[in-house]
Amino acid sequence: MYAQMVDTGLKQVQGREDLSPEERAFQQRIDEGVKIEAKDWMPDAYRKTLIRQISQHAHSEIVGQLPEGNWVTRAPTLKRKAILLAKIQDEAGHGLYLYSAAETLGVSRDELLAALHSGKAKYSSIFNYPTLSWADMGAIGWLVDGSAIINQIPLCRCSYGPYARAMIRVCKEESFHARQGYDIMMSLCKGTPEQKQMAQDALNRWWWPSLMMFGPSDAESVNSAQSAQWRIKLFSNDELRQKMVDQTVPQADYLGLSIPDPDLKFNEETGHYEFGEIDWSEFYEVLKGNGPCNRERLRTRVQAYDNGAWFRDALVAHADKQKQRSADAPRAA
Ligand code: 3HC
């Protein structure tokens, strides 16, 4: 895909003949699979797209806690509550890793959060949908974390060192997230007819938004070609989406659930499932802020940030006091 995407000559890929000697040397390192580190020279545009992608990835992790937080107090058993709490806590950690990776590019946490809170920065569209039943906890783990794993595993091999390294632990924990989600779906599908129907209803509501997580079609993706040339993106949006469909349909069959897509059919020749047209108007409406929960999610994040101001101020005051104390301490002779 990498070569094919780069060679499609898509508008935004800088032709190699236009590169300065520094950019040519940089591209050479990328092509040879050398990891770019924070202190290395890099084109401003490389830095900019990494700040964009890594910070939006971090925002997604943090905002992604909200839909599941809705069910912590209503989990059906203490065990499910403990598992859900552990998962949500993991997501907070993923956000922190990713903000730290973004900060290595010379941007501050406050700048990143200000971009989120002002609505300037994006987070994954998937988190703007409501969680209406306990089965949604299963569907999110199975489909949303399942999609995230497919999208994030290649990022462990991306060209920017801090991002690639942050992804390794994230992916290990995402696997637990996906397993616990599928386990919830299995319990419901083995339960009463009403429980199985609840699982089917959750699949019906989360299937298409999960496919949208992979981004617009390759033809519509404005960043993919350049990100591929810089080996930030190792597979295209459509390739990873196809992988998700191929992996998930047999799992739904095993559960005895039906995928809400009348056009879904297995193509013996290609070995892939063909699936129906995604409703891109819904995708772009959600990106514009008109999804079912966009306003509520952002309001909740801004409120949490404002409510935590006293704690941040106390930490800074404490750190300043410590600094003053060591400055005043008599120098060891
Ligand atoms: N939600 C919101 N915005 C999206 C999107 C989505 N699902 N898919 C694409 N977009 C945005 C892009 O950010 C870009 O806008 P921008 O230029 O203003 O940032 C625009 O739509 C065009 O899309 P492109 O395909 O050209 O953009 P990218 O090359 O950045 O590809 C991406 C989009 C595949 C999401 C890529 O950014 C990526 O791989 N990001 C890292 C992984 C990530 O962020 N995953 C989000 C979910 S994290 C998660 O699920 C956590 C788990 O614990 C549950």
UniProtKB/TrEMBL annotation:
Gene3D superfamilies per the UniProt record, alphabetical = 1.20.1260.10
InterPro entries registered for this protein in UniProt: Aromatic_CoA_ox/epox, Ferritin-like, Ferritin-like_SF, PaaA, PaaA_PaaC
Protein name from the UniProt record = Ring-1,2-phenylacetyl-CoA epoxidase subunit PaaA
